[in-house]
Amino acid sequence: MNAEIDISIPDFLLVKNRRPLSKKRRAAVDAWLARGAPSGGERIDCRKPKGLSWDEWDAIMAKQAAEKHAAALARVPLLREKYGARAKRAARPKKPRREELFAPDAVITVLAEGNPCREGTAAHAVFEKYRTGMTVAQFEAAAEDVCPGKLRPVDYLVYDSRRGRIAIEWKEKRR
What we know:
Elements: H1 23-34, H2 54-83, H3 86-91, E1 108-110, H4 122-127, H5 136-143, H6 153-162, E2 166-168
Antiparallel strand pairs: 1-2
């Protein structure tokens, strides 16, 4: 500890890497300590009534927690009845990952006349890689080096196909 810090202030009240307390603030802390403030090892709970011991207070809090838990468990069958079983959710097919949207041998057809992206942007450079008749795998290999940051060629395929700039011949993926 620093030599400047007054020893009468308990460690739990000290804030490191900060200016020392002013005289006025130090007097307020000393007055608070003189009134019987808790030391560093005592428990503090502002909800505990003054007449109760800590054991009694812990028993009351445990009883309240058990009642809350029992009430929550009582609501579970009602919620299951209201919203249905989880089996309905499990029966839904999983949404495919972006990598699984297009088969590698699917054929790309460019529908846009010219490059619709602004010149000088990364999207413009990626769109230049599209060729009618190329496969998705060929496009991914060609556009790999010009895709910026976290974006991947499949992200551009999704974006451009949704906007009608390209068409992709969908084939069912074999497993």
